[in-house]
Design a protein that fits this description.
By secondary structure, the chain is an alpha+beta fold. The chain has a single domain, classed as Roll (2,3-Dihydroxybiphenyl 1,2-Dioxygenase, domain 1). Strands 1, 2, 3, 4, 5, 6, 7, 8 and 9 form a nine-stranded mixed β-sheet that branches. The longest helix is centred in the N-terminal third of the chain and has 10 residues. The termini are close together. The mean pLDDT is 96.
Length: 134
């Protein structure tokens, strides 16, 4: 069911500083900042030959990323994102298997303009999983 790894997301307390570190120290290509108010985050993508790294900064105190940073002030790995061909079919299959979908179960549009869902980390070995329709 899952396809390729789309990205690994890292929560950061300062998006501009984190992007500068990736650009400078690692010589990476980093996208422009995108505001994603529906998800409560600002993001940039670090482009790699085989995948992307998504750097996430909270947009306000109500952001789920702020809650993560409250527990991990320096930041850290937040989630992994896998591609699926059909997000609704993937959701239905996962629900039949007993996996919990975070939120109301309906996909939202993610930073790449495609439908996404998040799966509860307790069902996936402590890892928050995002699914994105390819």
């Amino acid at each position: 069911m899952i396809g390729r790894l789309n990205h690994v997301a890292i929560a950061v307390p300062d998006l501009d500083a984190a992007a500068a570190t990736y650009r400078g120290a690692l010589g990476a290509t980093v996208s422009d900042v995108q505001d994603e108010p529906d998800h409560g985050v600002r993001v940039v993508f670090v482009e790699l030959p085989n995948t992307k790294i998504e750097l996430l900064e909270p947009m306000g105190e109500g952001s789920p990323i702020q809650a993560f940073l409250d527990k991990n002030p320096s930041g850290g790995m937040h989630h992994v994102c896998y591609e699926v061909d059909d997000i609704l079919a993937a959701r239905d299959r996962l629900k039949q298997e007993g996996a919990r979908i975070i939120g109301n179960g309906e996909p939202k549009i993610g930073a790449h303009g495609k439908p996404v869902l998040f799966l509860h980390p307790k069902d996936f070995n402590g890892t928050l999983v995002e699914l994105e329709q390819a």
